[in-house]
Every structure is written in structure tokens, then in C-alpha cells.
Amino acid sequence: MPDRSITVSPAATYDPTDSASLVASKPNDRKSASHSPGDANPIPASVRYRDAIYKAATAHGVDPLLMAAQAAQESGGPTSNSGSNIVQRGGGGHGLYQIDSGTYGEWLKTHHNGLNVQENANKAAEIDAHNLKVTGGNVGDAMHLYNAGHLGGATTQTTFPDGQTLSYPAAVQHHLKMLEELKASQQR
Fold it and tell me: Quick check: is 3 in a domain?
């Protein structure tokens, strides 16, 4: 099982121009009994865009369930187990993974404004793979980089129905826990 510990330490930044350093690691090979026989996709069947997320995640060596949790955080909201294919009010974030127009404006111009779900998931998986590489596999740091661009930057804060206000990495972890609970309930 992949390390999903959420801790943040100082030091790395994501360079969107450094695509040469993106090296896919071995794709996650976890299987779940909650899916039909032969279905290796660990993302619960009720999660929107699960196949696109799984395809992108495995192509880049990123944990599919982590990416599903990230999509739920990016464009689904605090009570959702799924993301949505939307453009943020004001136009800053685009698509399922809210690809940032400030950082990725040129990419958005040539990729359907980020609204092709598969392209959007692929870009997010590419960024995640890079961030995991530069942080030595630290999931919390990789999520922090995705949201803030560098480890010294502030992340977004999300307030959940139970009253907890969580940083972006902790919110992704919260969504991950929700997905794992959903998956477990579907296995019963």
C-alpha cells in the first residue's frame, strides 16, 4: 500500500517547465473486492470520472485513490466523494483538478481549456508524479506543492461539516478517508 502520510516539510518547489524530470514509477497494483472480477480500479464505482482518474494515475505511477481524493477536494467540495468538471468562478481553476490558469495558461489554451476530463486528469497526474519525485514520495508535501506551488506558501483551507478547518494536504487526506470508508462499505 502506498505511503499516504500527510506531513509537510520545507524545501521543494514545482517547476512546470521541468517535464524532463517526470519519470513514472511502477503503477499501483492494489485490487479491491468492491469491483467486478478483473477490474483493478480501486476507486469506488460511484466516484465520477473514476476511469479517467485511474487511467491517468496509473500512467504516471500515482495512487489512483489518492488522485480521486484530490479531485474531490479540488472540485467536489467538503461533503463530496467526487470532483466536477468546472471552471472556477473568476476563471482561475479549470476542470476536475482545477488546473491553474496563472501557471498553466498555455497548456489550457491547447487542451480544451482544461475541460477534457482525461487531459485534465493526465495533467494533474503529471504534476503529482513530479511533486512526489521532488519530495521523496512525501504525499503531504506533494499535495502542498500542488495547491500552493511551493512548500513555503499557504494552502487553501476547507471547513468540513464536522467543524474541522483543514489545510489542503489534510483535506485531501480527509477525502481519502471518506473514499476508503465508501470502498469498505461497498465490500460488505
Answer: no
Q: Which domain covers residue 57, as residue numbers?
A: 29-187
User: Per residue in 78-110, pLDDT tens?
Assistant: 999 999 999 987 878 999 999 999 999 999 999
Asked if residue 129 belongs to a domain, the reply is yes
Number of domains into which the chain is organized: 1
CATH code of the domain in which 93 resides: 1.10.530.10
169 located within any domain: yes
pLDDT digits (tens, 9 = 90+) for 107-127: 999 999 999 999 999 999 999
**The whole model's pTM is what?**
0.81
Tell me the three-class secondary structure of 101-165, residue by residue.
Answer: HHHHHHHHHHCHHHCCHHHHHHHHHHHHHHHHHHCCCCHHHHHHHHHHCECCCCCCEEECCCCCE
Contact 134, 10 (CB under 8 A): no
